[in-house]
Design brief:
By secondary structure, the protein is α/β, with parallel strands linked by helices. The chain has nine helices and seven strands. The chain binds nicotinamide-adenine-dinucleotide.
Length: 252
């Protein structure tokens, strides 16, 4: 019960890393609002509830102002406060900018980066009212190192790293810590389209040790461990930091 009683929002929580974080937070005693574009987030929430978790699902596109406002409002109506926000939702649309529609670039920036601006613009006032909090933005190893055919995604993730640091400075006087997590390859659907450009997921996995020195994919629950640490008071001295569970990618 490392975050007992805290109220947490996790975006992009219908599946993958966000689901693992929401599940872990609920097991550790938090009240969790799962949010996602996908209606299947309701089933994810129901399965966490079946384990005894106190959770709410709010369907929202976090790149849209009105839907973000509704997410914050629904959270406060249900649980009365906000202590933790995990900005996890993202898309990854690979390709060279020479073939990329402008709309793809805009969508990547809106879902990956602007969504974090929106959720925090409307969520942080509630954290200030609560006397402080912890914000966790989901970056990537691509916040530090690039990969071929991934320029829009990499640009958005690099932006998240510096956005995190800037907000850490702005919100420190409010007792709000802001950190980011920068994972390596976690085996979720977000990587599939990129892997297809290089022969498919199975083929790319055969040579995983070439780019991820631990030689295996990372499990979503390994990222949830880091999120739990950052959400809890165990990380009380940390703000403006990037925690990098990347299997060694950025060591090279
Ligand atoms: N899987 C990896 O290897 C990896 C590595 C580094 C960073 N990340 C980051 O981890 C986070 C989670 O990704 P994942 O691996 O679990 O992928 P995923 O595709 O399984 O999960 C992303 C979730 O975000 C949701 N989403 C997408 N657009 C949305 C929108 N506009 N509004 C609300 N929700 C939206 C999706 O529906 C999905 O449930 C992302 O920020 C991703 O960039 C993943």
């Amino acid at each position: 019960m490392r975050i007992e009683g805290k109220v947490a929002i996790v975006t992009g929580a219908a599946r993958g890393i966000g689901e693992a974080i929401a599940r872990r937070f609920a097991r550790e005693g938090a009240k969790v609002v799962l949010s996602d574009l996908l209606a299947s987030g309701e089933a994810t929430a129901a399965s966490i509830r079946a384990e005894g978790g106190d959770v709410l699902f709010v369907q929202a596109d976090v790149s849209k102002t009105d839907q973000v406002k509704q997410l914050i409002q629904a959270t406060v109506e249900q649980y009365g406060r906000i202590d933790v926000i995990v900005n996890n939702a993202a898309v990854n649309i690979p390709g060279s900018i020479l073939d990329m529609d402008e709309a793809v670039w805009d969508k990547t920036m809106e879902v990956n980066l602007k969504s974090q601006f929106l959720v925090l613009k409307y969520g942080v006032p509630e954290m200030i009212k609560a006397g402080g909090g912890s914000i966790i933005n989901m970056g990537s190893a691509n916040s530090f190192v690039a990969e071929p055919m991934l320029s829009a995604y990499v640009a958005s993730k690099g932006g998240i790293l510096m956005f995190t640091k800037a907000l850490a400075l702005d919100f420190a006087p409010h007792n709000i810590r802001v950190n980011c997590i920068c994972p390596g390859w976690v085996d979720t659907t977000i990587n599939d389209a990129h892997a297809e450009l290089f022969g498919g997921r199975e083929k790319v996995l055969e040579s995983i040790a070439d780019f991820q020195p631990l030689g295996r994919t990372i499990r979503p629950d390994e990222i949830a461990n880091v999120a739990l640490f950052l959400a809890s008071d165990e990380s009380s001295a940390m703000t403006g930091s990037a925690v990098v569970p990347d299997g060694g990618i950025t060591a090279k």
